[in-house]
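Students often ask why we bother encoding 3D structure as a string. The short answer is that it lets us treat folding as translation between two languages. Here is a chain of 610 residues written in the first language.
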Amino acid sequence: MHWDSMDRAPGGGLNSGRIAFIRAFPRPQWPVIRRAMLGLILAAAGRTQAGQCGTAIYFEKHRQSATAAQGALRVAAGEPANRARTLETDHFLFHYSLRGLHRVHTEPEDSTLVRTADSLFAAFKDMADPQRDSAAYARLDSAHLAHPVYIRKTAQYFEAARAYYVDRLGMLAPVSSVRSVQYQVPASLSNKFPVDIVDIGTADNLYAGETYGITYPPPQLSITFENDFLCRTKLDDNGNIVGDPIASRLAGKVIHDYSREWELGIKVTAFHEFYHAVQFTYIPRVVTYHAWYELSATGMEERNAGEVDDYLQYLPCVLNYHNQVPLNSLLQGPCTHYPMYGHSIFHQYLSKALDSAFDVRVWEQLRRNGDALQDGLETAFGKYGRTMASLYPDYVSQLFFSGNRFKMPDGLFSPDMDRWPNVSMDSIDMSGSNPHKVVTLPALTFGILKVKWGNAPATRILQAKVASGITRIHADAAGFEVEHLRETQFPLAAPHSGYGEYYLVLPNPSFTEKAAVEIKEADAVFYAFPNPVRAQTGAVLYFSQAKSMVFPSRVRIYGEDGREVVGLDFPSAEQVLTWDLMDAGKQLVKAGVYYYRLNEDPLRLLLVMR
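And here it is in the second language, the structure alphabet:
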């Protein structure tokens, strides 16, 4: 599978040669077996699991097990055995280890500290481990030996994150009542925000993959941070930590290996995880972990650590499956990670379209309304005189220029857009025999349709239902023309002079309603497509709207024996009529010959195949 292919392979079926192309989109939630099979296929193609935030994994785990997330931490079952050395800053306590798999990454400039620590551990070898660690760290502190550069950089970026979110944006400051989750630490330590630096996969195998960090929600509000950006670690025969690097990748190439470029890993993770701590200060009891938690945290990390570009690794998902993966999706669907990381580019867009403080308004409203996302976003957008219906179409029209396929306009919301994958698109050939196409779009998704003209007649009809804010773009490598169309039904004229085709960007800005766009002949007649259709769970049969059709109308399906199988209502021109191949008793019909009719029109033949 090529992420940057221009046209996705067509699917669907033919109806006596009259339908050029039919695209049936998968259901939003895949069965477990299909998801597993896709993972194997992608792995074989060299596409690896992207690194993730442990906070999302934490909530997904408890959502799947139907266990209340708060207070359910495994590490809370008993007192941690490990003792820590602690760096205290103005607002944080950074707890870390200098021994075993939790040993923090060290650099040559830490050599004096490492030699001294190793000698102390050897000198206290007859002590039990907790006492041994405590004695060694006490000696290091009394000798005023510097903390490792890894720890000092971690402290620097966490303080920078707090300064930006709390001091500059004026957001609520996280306050924790715990001193540490992963370590035993002295009770005399001040009550500042705790950051435990450990080998995350060793601390909890739930996070054994490429996990950067975890922010635990109240009542144990704290952050657990990766100690060396290695995962699946072990100690070799010489006592050295070995494992797989945590890295960001795009199109099979490594963007950053954080086990080597660890300062970049620290910076991007600090801004991401501390934003989760800020979020949980607004929403101390999270009932539904919605997409905005990760979308906004990833957007903020790009705002504050723009040179890292960690978010790039998540873009193939949202730019290739934009007609399947909603903006507010929590499901992985066809992706190998949560798509909400990739949807952080919407956060980047809003930062430019509105201002840098727009997300403060979002979280303030979420705090007031009980964490209801749609209301939180619409209320925040309303402060700027905008709505999702006005913002989302503008956003997706800019995404059309993602990658290097077309000349890029000035003023796009991201300066990185030429490095992004080319956005995927479908196509329709208007010069084909009676071209017809229906594009269905789940809520908060969009489609892009390349309209090839050839020797087609002058006009065709586009009829959109629910979708709004359609953009028509004439574009090639040399230039472009952009038209924003407000109508939901209009004739499709031939391309402008100098262009052999154009592109329709089809957004569905609704939070809840499925949208559909239909391209058909001006004098279209009523028929079903695809025909033949396969009888399988998830199959969809569409019915076209005929010219001068009267609403409401009723479609009846009959078996070969003349008995009615099911009746379907065509309520209005604003609805797309579909059939899931279930009979009136909600059983999947068998393969065979069927007939259908609109109201009292003549019967038409329908073939159902296995």
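Translate back mentally: The chain has a mean pLDDT of 85. Keep this in mind for the problem set.
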